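Q: Could you write out the predicted structure for this multi-component system? I'm mainly interested in how the pieces pack against one another.
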Amino acid sequence: MNKLTRRQMIGTGLAAAAGATGLAVAAKLAQRYGLIPPDSGGIYGPGATLTYAAQRIMTRHTLAREFSRSQISAEPFPYPVEPLGEEFGRLQNAAFVDWRVAVDGLVARPGSFSLAELKNYPASTQITMIGCEEGWTYIAEWTGVPLARVLEKVGVMSHARYVVYRSIQPDCWDSIDMSDALHPQTLLCHGMNGRDLPVPFGGPLRMRVPRQLGYKNVKYINRLTLTDTVKNIGKGLGSGALGAEDGYAWYAGI
Amino acid sequence: MSAQMSEAMAPRHALLVRLTHWLTALAFLGLVVTGIEILISHPRFYWGETGNVNMRPLFTIPIPSSREIVPTGYKYVLPDQNGWGRYLHFQSAWLLVGTGLLYFIFGLVRGHFRRNMLPSLADLSPKKLAASTGAHLRFQRPGPEEAWSYNVLQRLAYLVVIFVFFPLIIWTGLAMSPAFESFAPGAITILGGHQSARTIHFFLTAFLLMFLAVHVMMIALAGFRARMRAMITGRVTASVAPPVPATQERA
């Protein structure tokens, strides 16, 4: 034992106390500023939380890269989906005139929008990349109504923290935080490369979140729910069959 | 060597070097295993911004895939492991980055890079370099002086891995993150695009695995037990005294 032991022990003790206090303060701040993802529990929680918090801080006001018209992929790839069922077939045969998107939850004026109504809103167009978590990518021109515009119509209550969006496909739903929901490039997308959004790519309506991976861009959207927690939906992990409930991270900015 | 003497003597590797070495090894193991899992879901590589199964790949890895959509020539599809694989990949990446930062600050502040990594000018002469290369190519067992110091090729290899390969692999990894792309778009275009970044990331992994193979081989050649002991406990075999007074080496 040498002379430094006591001093080292005091130093280590102080450092540990400071570290613990720092962590507690950081956790409080993170909770307050929405830096904790719904899937923060479990053994991969620390990594998922660090990624979400770091990217939320870094990307507060950033825009997804936009490309030139010449960079649009000649051969985009639509990920195959399960058979879409009878109801979808009926709506498709009627050229989707009866397709509606219900909006409920923490909003002042719950209601629903027809596809025609959404198409009548001033459209936003972007040439952005969609990237699959598997590693492949393509670039397309996407046209749609900014989600923020729809949320403005229904009047989002101030304590809403997530937009949950559901597909006509069973168990297929996901959610994004308000930061992404109000982002100018987040679209309820109904057009692709100058035409109506084709069914294999999610037509008549898909969510487009260009700062996250493909699986957050859920196809065939027919319902939006504003909520302050996703704990009571499904398994409480923030996304359904194509996301967290299949073992994938809720936040897919990476 | 008595317990008192070993305590008074500086360790071969500082505690922080030993700690960060093994944490990096753990993080690298997690990254390689999950990286292979993720690769299996699309074992095709492209150059530029875009690439998918409708496009001609730059090259493909001739292995089966965990996705039906990938034409591999194999008649079966492997199970999807990307959920936990991606979680663990990024968690390991955080461990690597955190450990790397700690090591980097330590290395600068305590002179570890300058003293233990930077080769001396004399060692960089063509003659010395040729001699060291020759010794390595003949699988010559390193002499006792190397128990306390890295040789010139070893220093150069470590410097390249620490200051070139690791920063590049972190950069190319981040370049595949759509959120990071929005934060630093120039960091992707300068690499040639999203798919180029993915392809470079793959080759960097291959280089790091080759480094690891040579690294472990050299450890075995130099004396596996002695070198492992030095990197775990910091102690060197009693027969070899440190070349400088212990107080100077303590870091």
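A: Regarding packing and overall arrangement: The longest strand of chain B covers residues 44-45.
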